[in-house]
Amino acid sequence: MNSDRADLLQPLWRALVVFRVITFGFACFGVWVRWTGIVRPSGALLQLAVMGLWTAVVCVGYSRFRTTRLAVVDLVVTIGCMYATLLAQPLLDIRAGASVLTSVWAAGPVLALAIARGRDGGLVGAVTVSLALLSLRGVDNVSKILANVQLLLVAGLVVGYAATTMRRANARLREAIAAESATAERLRLSRSIHDGVLQVLAQVQRRGTAIGGEAVELAALAAEQEVALRSLMASRPAPSGTGQIDLCGALLPLATTRVDVVVPAGPVVLPVEVVGELVAAVKEALSNVVKHAGPDARSWVVVEDLGGEVMVSVRDDGAGTTPDRLEAAHGDGRLGVSQSIRGRITDLGGSVFVRTAPGEGTEWEMTVSR
Q1: 255, 230 contact by CB (below 8 A)
Q2: What topology is assigned to 239-370 in CATH?
Q3: Where do runs of H (alpha helix) occur along 4-40?
Q4: Bridge partners of 368?
Q5: pLDDT in tens, 156-181
Q6: Cα maximum dimension of the chain
Q7: Are strands 309-316 and 362-369 parallel, antiparallel or unpaired?
Q8: Domain segments of the chain as ranges
């Protein structure tokens, strides 16, 4: 695992290093206690020497590299050390009850794989070590090693689950830090823009309107740019790597001098596909306002977070129409309402409700489930 992804997992890796050292000491103590019963003491000393050297190697490795490849190599070497017990004890003696000299030291790679690869890694390591132990002990001694197998499985699963949880928490922490940094920078830029550019644009708008003539067009352009800058300042960074984005951040850029976008204070996070379809439907509704509501019509886009549902309403104060005329438009082959608005929301499993009357404008309510 790369060091930049292991911030919250560092304590687990450090604990594994301590575990390796302590359990090697247990293995040495076990050999000392059983010294008189060991058939070939030189083989036991050779085995301990290899274990001690490998313990030093993995302690350095887990302190610096922390990769899955190192954990797999650790598993292979550890199983080799387990079979190296045959240098000290005949296989018949081991199956008759003599101890495997690696003792609990053999659980090291199980924990390493659990930390590196989560629950599945811990499970694979535990099963592999258990099979190696079973091959040394023999099928007839399954009941005698059952407790060891259970401990290996529990350790691999528990540590793996903890590592996975911490890894996810680490990812969320990085996203939160990035969002906080982006928000702080956005606020700093917003203050600068507000103190400079926005004030100049507002003054140009006021003076152009007062002067009249061709300056009115300049005032209108200044007003549009002021709205665009305010929308940019109000936009929010989208969550990364989650497959979901903030609906409010996607709708805020639609604000103009004739379109107000009102959103909740907090983000309204939805799947990317849902947000894309909602934004497209809102754009179609705003396009209809430009085409049919009259040149002076204003529009309001409002986002409401209802908990289990999200409702987006688009309202205008234009000329309005009647429901019969909407149906007639569909019959004449004008499919903007039926497909671009109703069709999109229906495909999302949502609902669309429209209110309109002559002289009273039109309001669309588009609701989708979370």
Answers
A1: yes
A2: Heat Shock Protein 90 (3.30.565)
A3: 10-33
A4: 310
A5: 999 999 999 998 888 888 877 877 77
A6: 110
A7: antiparallel
A8: 3-174, 239-370
